[in-house]
What we know:
There is one protein chain. This protein is an alpha/beta fold. It has a domain at 76-108 and 235-425: Rossmann fold, CATH 3.40.50.1100. 41% of the residues lie in helices and 17% in strands. The protein is built from 17 helices and 15 strands. It has helices at 41-44, 50-57, 67-73, 85-91, 112-124, 138-149, 160-165, 167-175, 189-197, 205-218, 231-251, 266-280, 297-300, 343-350, 361-375, 381-400, 418-425, and strands spanning 4-5, 15-17, 62-64, 81-83, 96-101, 129-134, 153-159, 179-183, 222-224, 257-261, 286-292, 302-307, 316-321, 355-359, 405-410. Helix 12 links the parallel strand 10 (257-261) and strand 11. The termini are far apart. The mean pLDDT is 96. Residues 109, 135-136, 138-139, 228, 261-268, 335-336, 380, 382-383, 411-412 line the site of pyridoxal-5'-phosphate.
Amino acid sequence: MKNRINLNEDQIPTHYYNILADLPFQMDPPLHPGTKQPISPDDMAPIFPMSLIEQEMSPQREIKIPDPVREAYQIYRPTPLIRASRLERALNTPAKIYYKYEGVSPTGSHKPNTAIAQAYFNKLEGTKKLVTETGAGQWGSSLAYACHLFGMECTVYMVKVSYHQKPYRKTMMNLFGAEIYPSPSNRTDAGRKILEQDPDCPGSLGIAISEAIEEAVKTPHAKYSLGSVLNHVILHQTIIGLETQKQFELAGDYPDVVIGCHGGGSNFAGLAMPFVRDKIHGKNIDIIAAEPSSCPTLTQGKVEYDFGDSVGMTPLMKMHTLGHEFIPPSIHAGGLRYHGASPIVSALLTHNLIRAEALGQLEIFKGAMLFAKTEGLIPAPESSHAVQAAILEAENAREEGKEKTIVFNLSGHGLLDLSAYEAYLNGELQEEEKQTAVA
Ligand SMILES: Cc1ncc(COP(=O)(O)O)c(C=O)c1O
């Protein structure tokens, strides 16, 4: 039995997969924040290049991956699909557990899959600088890397609590030539407004998005870039699931359960979308998004039109949301502290094509420790939600005596999150209170 299923460089997919072509229902369109009418491509042009706006709205099933982007992917793709046989033995489960390991990318997570594509399409249209937000720093460091690859400047607003929890992410972004500011900051009207109300605000992804959009709109030749949530980001991330399907073919296996952690939805959807396509066509697959119980967007959020940022600058999107003013507790899985969800993921949940689970901070670290001890890789706190969800599924399989095949996305490594592991080992981590939506 092979534990590691590898593909060759020439097996990197040539096209992204667009689930919008196969959905058995209509998506509600994003609305202009002023007129409340469906937004037009021109409305989005101040913040995104036209090629990405076209991808955002495209009904085409397959979208070609440009050669320079495929070449850049070759640095770390195809990523391995690995059978977690030692974890299986430790759990004494009849289930087979596989993980798709995205932590082999230059910055240690799935985020470069879209950062490289976004930087490339921006560069083609003359953008000189990209401005963005980041939670735990995985996205910011990925965009910093991608901007460096294509000769562009990069500014990152990093959520303040994570900026202090993960100082080496800042170093990484600086190393790739990016500027980085803790958010909320005094550099933007959005940041100043929040600081006036709460000088000690720990920040949130929603606030950092407001600051980044404001700077992008005010700076000549600059555009804004988002690391999750939007259709074009999910499109780029489908490269994960497309590779995984080829790898399962090689292994002569197929998953019964597909799991990803969920912040804005990009790594979950990236793995899951090709499997959702199969489910739409009749396959029986349990597809699970695992989120933190302290920021339970999918399990507790309302489905309604809401802003993607805190101040209310983005288009209104129909999604699961805890309310755009919701500021999640300062958990270590900084990349999962987001009030909203991808509209695609939200719609799939509403139509029962996927389901969601909420997990507590202490249980996900317990799962991550078991995974690290058996498989030797230290998962990012975000990814640990998927690890723990997979462990729970494997334990259920043991109780039921069922031979299930489980695959989860190990979206990133936790080598820059060791302070969180140290706090866990020292017994200093709290179980954050379960949260509900802002009324
Ligand atoms: C390692 C890792 N996994 C998951 C996420 C969550 O984002 P998304 O839901 O877009 O995949 C992040 C976000 O920063 C991350 O860094």
